[in-house]
Design brief:
16 helices; mainly alpha
Length: 417
Protein backbone atom coordinates (compact mmCIF):
# COMPACT_ATOMS: atom_id res chain seq x y z
CA UNK A 1 0.00 0.00 0.00
CA UNK A 2 1.09 3.54 -0.70
CA UNK A 3 1.77 5.67 2.32
CA UNK A 4 0.43 9.16 2.83
CA UNK A 5 3.67 10.78 1.61
CA UNK A 6 3.40 9.16 -1.81
CA UNK A 7 -0.24 10.17 -2.10
CA UNK A 8 0.63 13.74 -1.13
CA UNK A 9 3.44 13.89 -3.71
CA UNK A 10 1.10 12.54 -6.38
CA UNK A 11 -1.34 15.28 -5.42
CA UNK A 12 1.40 17.88 -5.89
CA UNK A 13 2.19 16.41 -9.32
CA UNK A 14 -1.50 16.57 -10.22
CA UNK A 15 -1.62 20.21 -9.14
CA UNK A 16 1.45 21.02 -11.20
CA UNK A 17 -0.12 19.58 -14.33
CA UNK A 18 -3.38 21.43 -13.73
CA UNK A 19 -1.60 24.74 -13.07
CA UNK A 20 0.64 24.73 -16.13
CA UNK A 21 -2.04 23.11 -18.28
CA UNK A 22 -4.62 25.74 -17.33
CA UNK A 23 -2.33 28.50 -18.54
CA UNK A 24 -1.63 26.66 -21.81
CA UNK A 25 -5.35 26.02 -22.30
CA UNK A 26 -6.08 29.73 -22.19
CA UNK A 27 -3.18 30.53 -24.51
CA UNK A 28 -4.69 28.25 -27.16
CA UNK A 29 -7.26 30.96 -27.89
CA UNK A 30 -4.44 33.23 -29.04
CA UNK A 31 -3.27 30.71 -31.65
CA UNK A 32 -5.61 30.51 -34.63
CA UNK A 33 -5.87 28.18 -37.58
CA UNK A 34 -5.84 29.56 -41.15
CA UNK A 35 -9.68 29.75 -41.10
CA UNK A 36 -9.58 32.03 -38.03
CA UNK A 37 -10.71 29.49 -35.45
CA UNK A 38 -8.95 28.75 -32.18
CA UNK A 39 -6.38 25.97 -32.56
CA UNK A 40 -7.55 23.10 -30.36
CA UNK A 41 -4.81 20.73 -31.51
CA UNK A 42 -2.27 22.24 -29.14
CA UNK A 43 -1.58 20.59 -25.80
CA UNK A 44 -4.00 21.81 -23.14
CA UNK A 45 -4.91 21.19 -19.54
CA UNK A 46 -5.61 17.47 -19.96
CA UNK A 47 -2.36 16.78 -21.81
CA UNK A 48 -0.24 18.66 -19.31
CA UNK A 49 -1.94 17.01 -16.34
CA UNK A 50 -1.39 13.55 -17.78
CA UNK A 51 2.23 14.45 -18.60
CA UNK A 52 2.88 15.52 -15.02
CA UNK A 53 1.29 12.37 -13.63
CA UNK A 54 3.31 10.31 -16.13
CA UNK A 55 6.53 11.79 -14.79
CA UNK A 56 5.48 11.22 -11.19
CA UNK A 57 4.40 7.59 -11.61
CA UNK A 58 7.33 6.51 -13.80
CA UNK A 59 9.87 8.10 -11.46
CA UNK A 60 8.22 6.36 -8.51
CA UNK A 61 8.36 3.00 -10.29
CA UNK A 62 11.76 3.02 -12.03
CA UNK A 63 14.34 5.56 -13.21
CA UNK A 64 14.74 4.00 -16.62
CA UNK A 65 10.99 4.01 -17.08
CA UNK A 66 11.06 7.75 -16.42
CA UNK A 67 13.88 8.12 -18.94
CA UNK A 68 11.84 6.25 -21.54
CA UNK A 69 8.82 8.46 -20.82
CA UNK A 70 10.90 11.60 -21.30
CA UNK A 71 12.26 10.31 -24.60
CA UNK A 72 8.78 9.47 -25.84
CA UNK A 73 7.32 12.85 -24.85
CA UNK A 74 10.30 14.61 -26.45
CA UNK A 75 9.76 12.67 -29.68
CA UNK A 76 6.03 13.48 -29.70
CA UNK A 77 6.79 17.17 -29.11
CA UNK A 78 9.40 17.19 -31.89
CA UNK A 79 6.99 15.58 -34.35
CA UNK A 80 4.24 18.05 -33.41
CA UNK A 81 6.58 20.96 -33.94
CA UNK A 82 7.79 19.60 -37.28
CA UNK A 83 4.24 19.16 -38.56
CA UNK A 84 3.35 22.74 -37.59
CA UNK A 85 6.65 24.39 -38.45
CA UNK A 86 5.10 26.53 -41.23
CA UNK A 87 2.33 27.89 -38.99
CA UNK A 88 4.23 28.90 -35.87
CA UNK A 89 7.88 28.92 -34.86
CA UNK A 90 7.49 28.93 -31.08
CA UNK A 91 8.70 25.97 -29.06
CA UNK A 92 7.17 27.16 -25.81
CA UNK A 93 4.37 24.61 -25.54
CA UNK A 94 6.57 21.66 -26.50
CA UNK A 95 9.32 22.61 -24.05
CA UNK A 96 6.74 23.29 -21.33
CA UNK A 97 5.25 19.83 -21.85
CA UNK A 98 8.64 18.18 -21.41
CA UNK A 99 9.36 20.37 -18.39
CA UNK A 100 6.04 19.38 -16.83
CA UNK A 101 7.02 15.70 -17.03
CA UNK A 102 10.25 16.51 -15.19
CA UNK A 103 8.38 18.54 -12.57
CA UNK A 104 6.00 15.67 -12.02
CA UNK A 105 8.96 13.36 -11.38
CA UNK A 106 10.58 15.94 -9.08
CA UNK A 107 7.37 16.17 -7.07
CA UNK A 108 7.88 12.60 -5.86
CA UNK A 109 11.13 13.52 -4.05
CA UNK A 110 11.05 17.28 -3.39
CA UNK A 111 7.45 18.44 -3.80
CA UNK A 112 8.02 21.95 -2.45
CA UNK A 113 10.73 22.69 -5.00
CA UNK A 114 8.65 21.16 -7.80
CA UNK A 115 5.60 23.24 -6.87
CA UNK A 116 7.70 26.42 -6.68
CA UNK A 117 9.18 25.78 -10.11
CA UNK A 118 5.73 25.10 -11.51
CA UNK A 119 4.44 28.43 -10.21
CA UNK A 120 7.46 30.21 -11.73
CA UNK A 121 6.88 28.46 -15.06
CA UNK A 122 3.19 29.38 -15.06
CA UNK A 123 4.02 33.01 -14.32
CA UNK A 124 6.54 33.13 -17.16
CA UNK A 125 4.07 31.56 -19.56
CA UNK A 126 1.25 33.89 -18.57
CA UNK A 127 3.47 36.99 -18.73
CA UNK A 128 4.38 36.48 -22.38
CA UNK A 129 3.05 39.79 -23.66
CA UNK A 130 4.43 42.01 -20.80
CA UNK A 131 7.84 40.35 -21.00
CA UNK A 132 8.05 40.62 -24.78
CA UNK A 133 6.79 44.19 -24.66
CA UNK A 134 9.34 45.16 -22.00
CA UNK A 135 12.30 43.54 -23.78
CA UNK A 136 11.38 44.70 -27.28
CA UNK A 137 9.67 48.00 -26.60
CA UNK A 138 11.08 49.39 -23.34
CA UNK A 139 14.64 48.15 -22.89
CA UNK A 140 17.10 49.48 -25.45
CA UNK A 141 20.01 47.53 -26.85
CA UNK A 142 22.47 49.65 -24.85
CA UNK A 143 20.56 49.01 -21.61
CA UNK A 144 20.51 45.28 -22.28
CA UNK A 145 24.27 45.30 -22.88
CA UNK A 146 24.78 47.20 -19.61
CA UNK A 147 22.67 44.66 -17.76
CA UNK A 148 24.74 41.81 -19.19
CA UNK A 149 27.94 43.56 -18.08
CA UNK A 150 26.58 44.01 -14.56
CA UNK A 151 25.39 40.39 -14.43
CA UNK A 152 28.79 39.13 -15.63
CA UNK A 153 30.65 41.28 -13.11
CA UNK A 154 28.46 39.96 -10.27
CA UNK A 155 27.90 36.31 -11.16
CA UNK A 156 31.11 35.44 -13.01
CA UNK A 157 33.98 37.71 -11.95
CA UNK A 158 33.06 38.31 -8.28
CA UNK A 159 33.22 34.61 -7.25
CA UNK A 160 36.67 34.38 -8.88
CA UNK A 161 38.10 37.36 -6.98
CA UNK A 162 40.44 36.30 -4.12
CA UNK A 163 39.07 37.27 -0.73
CA UNK A 164 42.43 37.92 0.94
CA UNK A 165 44.67 40.88 1.64
CA UNK A 166 47.62 41.50 -0.66
CA UNK A 167 49.72 44.25 -2.19
CA UNK A 168 51.72 46.97 -0.40
CA UNK A 169 51.28 46.79 3.38
CA UNK A 170 48.69 44.03 2.77
CA UNK A 171 46.09 46.75 2.32
CA UNK A 172 44.25 45.54 -0.78
CA UNK A 173 41.42 43.01 -0.81
CA UNK A 174 40.54 42.41 -4.49
CA UNK A 175 37.09 41.06 -3.68
CA UNK A 176 36.15 44.13 -1.65
CA UNK A 177 37.37 46.48 -4.37
CA UNK A 178 35.39 44.56 -6.99
CA UNK A 179 32.31 44.88 -4.79
CA UNK A 180 32.82 48.66 -4.99
CA UNK A 181 32.87 48.41 -8.80
CA UNK A 182 29.63 46.42 -8.75
CA UNK A 183 28.02 48.88 -6.32
CA UNK A 184 28.80 51.87 -8.53
CA UNK A 185 27.40 50.12 -11.61
CA UNK A 186 24.34 48.85 -9.72
CA UNK A 187 23.55 52.29 -8.27
CA UNK A 188 23.91 53.78 -11.75
CA UNK A 189 21.53 51.18 -13.17
CA UNK A 190 19.10 51.78 -10.29
CA UNK A 191 19.18 55.51 -10.97
CA UNK A 192 18.66 54.93 -14.69
CA UNK A 193 15.64 52.74 -13.96
CA UNK A 194 14.21 55.42 -11.67
CA UNK A 195 14.64 57.96 -14.46
CA UNK A 196 12.64 55.77 -16.81
CA UNK A 197 9.86 54.93 -14.35
CA UNK A 198 9.56 57.84 -11.88
CA UNK A 199 11.25 60.67 -13.72
CA UNK A 200 14.43 62.60 -13.14
CA UNK A 201 13.14 65.30 -10.84
CA UNK A 202 12.12 62.95 -8.02
CA UNK A 203 13.70 59.67 -9.14
CA UNK A 204 17.35 60.56 -8.54
CA UNK A 205 16.82 62.05 -5.05
CA UNK A 206 14.95 58.90 -4.06
CA UNK A 207 17.68 56.69 -5.50
CA UNK A 208 20.32 58.73 -3.69
CA UNK A 209 18.70 58.30 -0.29
CA UNK A 210 18.19 54.54 -0.74
CA UNK A 211 21.61 53.89 -2.27
CA UNK A 212 23.32 55.85 0.49
CA UNK A 213 22.68 52.93 2.82
CA UNK A 214 24.91 50.84 0.55
CA UNK A 215 27.67 53.36 -0.13
CA UNK A 216 27.37 57.13 -0.05
CA UNK A 217 30.68 57.58 -1.88
CA UNK A 218 29.60 55.22 -4.65
CA UNK A 219 26.25 57.02 -4.85
CA UNK A 220 27.92 60.42 -5.20
CA UNK A 221 30.15 58.98 -7.92
CA UNK A 222 27.15 57.62 -9.83
CA UNK A 223 25.22 60.87 -9.44
CA UNK A 224 28.19 62.88 -10.62
CA UNK A 225 28.50 60.77 -13.73
CA UNK A 226 24.77 61.14 -14.36
CA UNK A 227 24.98 64.94 -14.13
CA UNK A 228 27.96 65.00 -16.48
CA UNK A 229 26.14 62.79 -19.00
CA UNK A 230 22.87 64.73 -18.84
CA UNK A 231 23.32 68.34 -17.63
CA UNK A 232 19.53 68.79 -17.36
CA UNK A 233 19.57 66.31 -14.46
CA UNK A 234 22.18 68.29 -12.51
CA UNK A 235 19.78 69.55 -9.82
CA UNK A 236 18.26 66.11 -9.25
CA UNK A 237 21.67 64.43 -9.18
CA UNK A 238 22.95 66.95 -6.61
CA UNK A 239 19.90 66.33 -4.43
CA UNK A 240 20.48 62.56 -4.65
CA UNK A 241 24.14 62.95 -3.73
CA UNK A 242 23.36 65.10 -0.69
CA UNK A 243 20.56 62.84 0.54
CA UNK A 244 22.94 59.87 0.39
CA UNK A 245 24.89 61.52 3.22
CA UNK A 246 21.73 61.61 5.32
CA UNK A 247 21.57 57.83 4.90
CA UNK A 248 25.14 57.63 6.21
CA UNK A 249 24.15 59.46 9.41
CA UNK A 250 21.05 57.32 9.83
CA UNK A 251 23.09 54.15 9.34
CA UNK A 252 25.69 55.25 11.92
CA UNK A 253 22.84 55.87 14.36
CA UNK A 254 21.45 52.38 13.78
CA UNK A 255 24.91 50.83 14.20
CA UNK A 256 25.46 52.57 17.53
CA UNK A 257 21.97 51.65 18.72
CA UNK A 258 22.76 48.02 18.00
CA UNK A 259 26.32 47.81 19.37
CA UNK A 260 26.62 50.43 22.10
CA UNK A 261 23.76 52.43 23.57
CA UNK A 262 26.08 54.62 25.72
CA UNK A 263 28.02 55.67 22.62
CA UNK A 264 24.76 56.58 20.89
CA UNK A 265 23.76 58.70 23.90
CA UNK A 266 27.11 60.51 23.73
CA UNK A 267 26.64 61.23 20.01
CA UNK A 268 22.89 61.68 19.78
CA UNK A 269 23.01 65.47 19.54
CA UNK A 270 25.83 65.66 16.94
CA UNK A 271 24.07 63.05 14.82
CA UNK A 272 20.74 64.85 15.20
CA UNK A 273 22.27 68.19 14.23
CA UNK A 274 24.01 66.67 11.20
CA UNK A 275 20.96 64.68 10.12
CA UNK A 276 18.60 67.65 10.30
CA UNK A 277 21.05 69.91 8.44
CA UNK A 278 21.58 67.31 5.69
CA UNK A 279 17.87 66.61 5.35
CA UNK A 280 17.12 70.32 5.04
CA UNK A 281 19.79 70.77 2.38
CA UNK A 282 18.62 67.71 0.48
CA UNK A 283 14.99 68.75 0.74
CA UNK A 284 15.76 72.25 -0.54
CA UNK A 285 17.74 70.82 -3.45
CA UNK A 286 14.92 68.40 -4.26
CA UNK A 287 12.40 71.24 -4.32
CA UNK A 288 14.78 73.16 -6.56
CA UNK A 289 14.99 70.16 -8.89
CA UNK A 290 11.20 70.06 -9.18
CA UNK A 291 11.30 73.48 -10.84
CA UNK A 292 13.82 72.44 -13.47
CA UNK A 293 12.57 70.78 -16.67
CA UNK A 294 14.15 67.46 -17.57
CA UNK A 295 12.70 66.97 -21.03
CA UNK A 296 15.78 65.14 -22.29
CA UNK A 297 16.00 62.65 -19.40
CA UNK A 298 14.51 59.88 -21.50
CA UNK A 299 17.31 60.29 -24.02
CA UNK A 300 19.78 58.82 -21.54
CA UNK A 301 20.75 55.42 -22.94
CA UNK A 302 23.70 54.42 -20.75
CA UNK A 303 22.80 52.88 -17.42
CA UNK A 304 26.22 53.31 -15.83
CA UNK A 305 29.85 54.06 -16.59
CA UNK A 306 32.33 51.21 -16.21
CA UNK A 307 35.15 53.75 -16.37
CA UNK A 308 33.71 55.65 -13.39
CA UNK A 309 33.37 52.45 -11.38
CA UNK A 310 36.99 51.45 -11.97
CA UNK A 311 38.20 54.97 -11.21
CA UNK A 312 36.47 55.01 -7.82
CA UNK A 313 37.80 51.55 -6.95
CA UNK A 314 41.31 52.69 -7.87
CA UNK A 315 40.95 55.80 -5.73
CA UNK A 316 39.86 53.71 -2.75
CA UNK A 317 42.79 51.34 -3.30
CA UNK A 318 45.24 54.27 -3.16
CA UNK A 319 43.67 55.56 0.06
CA UNK A 320 43.87 52.09 1.62
CA UNK A 321 47.56 51.75 0.78
CA UNK A 322 48.37 55.20 2.19
CA UNK A 323 46.37 54.51 5.35
CA UNK A 324 48.05 51.15 5.91
CA UNK A 325 51.47 52.71 5.36
CA UNK A 326 50.83 55.44 7.90
CA UNK A 327 49.66 52.91 10.46
CA UNK A 328 52.74 50.77 9.92
CA UNK A 329 55.20 53.65 10.03
CA UNK A 330 53.77 55.40 13.09
CA UNK A 331 52.42 52.37 14.98
CA UNK A 332 49.55 52.89 17.41
CA UNK A 333 49.41 56.67 17.06
CA UNK A 334 46.02 56.82 18.67
CA UNK A 335 42.46 55.80 18.08
CA UNK A 336 41.54 59.17 16.61
CA UNK A 337 44.20 59.13 13.89
CA UNK A 338 43.46 55.53 12.95
CA UNK A 339 39.71 56.11 12.76
CA UNK A 340 40.20 59.26 10.71
CA UNK A 341 42.41 57.43 8.22
CA UNK A 342 39.92 54.61 7.79
CA UNK A 343 37.15 57.18 7.55
CA UNK A 344 38.64 58.37 4.25
CA UNK A 345 37.23 55.19 2.73
CA UNK A 346 34.32 54.22 4.97
CA UNK A 347 32.67 55.86 7.98
CA UNK A 348 30.93 52.71 9.13
CA UNK A 349 33.98 50.51 9.80
CA UNK A 350 35.57 52.82 12.43
CA UNK A 351 32.14 53.37 13.97
CA UNK A 352 31.71 49.63 14.48
CA UNK A 353 35.27 49.31 15.80
CA UNK A 354 35.04 52.15 18.34
CA UNK A 355 31.56 51.15 19.49
CA UNK A 356 32.87 47.63 20.06
CA UNK A 357 35.63 49.04 22.29
CA UNK A 358 32.98 50.76 24.39
CA UNK A 359 30.83 47.63 24.53
CA UNK A 360 33.88 45.66 25.74
CA UNK A 361 34.60 48.31 28.41
CA UNK A 362 37.98 49.14 26.84
CA UNK A 363 37.22 52.86 26.53
CA UNK A 364 34.57 55.22 27.87
CA UNK A 365 31.60 56.25 25.76
CA UNK A 366 32.62 59.90 26.04
CA UNK A 367 36.06 59.01 24.64
CA UNK A 368 34.45 57.28 21.64
CA UNK A 369 32.79 60.41 20.28
CA UNK A 370 35.93 62.09 18.93
CA UNK A 371 37.24 59.12 16.88
CA UNK A 372 33.82 58.56 15.27
CA UNK A 373 33.39 62.24 14.45
CA UNK A 374 36.92 62.35 13.01
CA UNK A 375 36.13 59.39 10.74
CA UNK A 376 32.87 61.03 9.69
CA UNK A 377 34.64 64.29 8.84
CA UNK A 378 37.40 62.63 6.81
CA UNK A 379 34.76 60.60 5.00
CA UNK A 380 33.14 63.88 3.94
CA UNK A 381 36.47 64.91 2.38
CA UNK A 382 36.49 61.72 0.33
CA UNK A 383 32.95 62.49 -0.79
CA UNK A 384 34.03 65.97 -1.88
CA UNK A 385 36.95 64.54 -3.88
CA UNK A 386 34.63 61.99 -5.46
CA UNK A 387 32.17 64.74 -6.39
CA UNK A 388 34.90 66.68 -8.19
CA UNK A 389 36.28 63.62 -9.95
CA UNK A 390 32.94 62.24 -11.13
CA UNK A 391 30.78 65.29 -11.81
CA UNK A 392 33.24 68.10 -12.40
CA UNK A 393 33.32 71.57 -10.91
CA UNK A 394 29.67 72.42 -11.57
CA UNK A 395 28.44 69.33 -9.72
CA UNK A 396 31.00 69.65 -6.94
CA UNK A 397 30.26 73.32 -6.25
CA UNK A 398 26.70 72.36 -5.33
CA UNK A 399 27.49 69.18 -3.39
CA UNK A 400 30.51 70.33 -1.36
CA UNK A 401 28.72 73.22 0.45
CA UNK A 402 26.12 70.75 1.73
CA UNK A 403 28.92 68.49 2.99
CA UNK A 404 30.51 71.45 4.77
CA UNK A 405 27.17 72.33 6.39
CA UNK A 406 26.72 68.72 7.44
CA UNK A 407 30.15 68.41 9.07
CA UNK A 408 29.84 71.84 10.70
CA UNK A 409 26.47 70.92 12.18
CA UNK A 410 27.84 67.64 13.55
CA UNK A 411 30.77 69.32 15.28
CA UNK A 412 28.54 72.12 16.54
CA UNK A 413 26.28 69.56 18.17
CA UNK A 414 29.31 67.93 19.82
CA UNK A 415 30.78 71.21 21.10
CA UNK A 416 27.47 72.49 22.45
CA UNK A 417 26.29 69.30 24.15
Amino acid sequence: MMDNTVLLNLGVALGIGLLVGAERERSKNNVQTPNGQADNTLAGIRTFTIASMLGAITSWMNFWLLFAALVCVAMFAAVAFYVRRDERLGLTTEISLLFTVILGALAMTTPILAASLAVCAAILLAAKEPIHGFVLGVVTREELNDFLILAGATLIILPLMPNTVMGPFHAINPRNLWVVVILVMAIGAFGHLALRIIGGRIGLPLVGMVSGFISSIATISAMGHRSRETPALLSSAVAGAVLSSFSTILQITLILATISQPTLQALIMPLMFGGIATLLCGGALTLNALHHPVSDANKVSQSFSVKTAFFLAGLIAVVLIISAGLNQWFGQAGLVIGSAIVGLVDAHAPTVSVASFVANHQILATDAALPILAAFSLNAISKAITAVASGGKVFAWQVVPSLVIQVTAVWMGWLLF
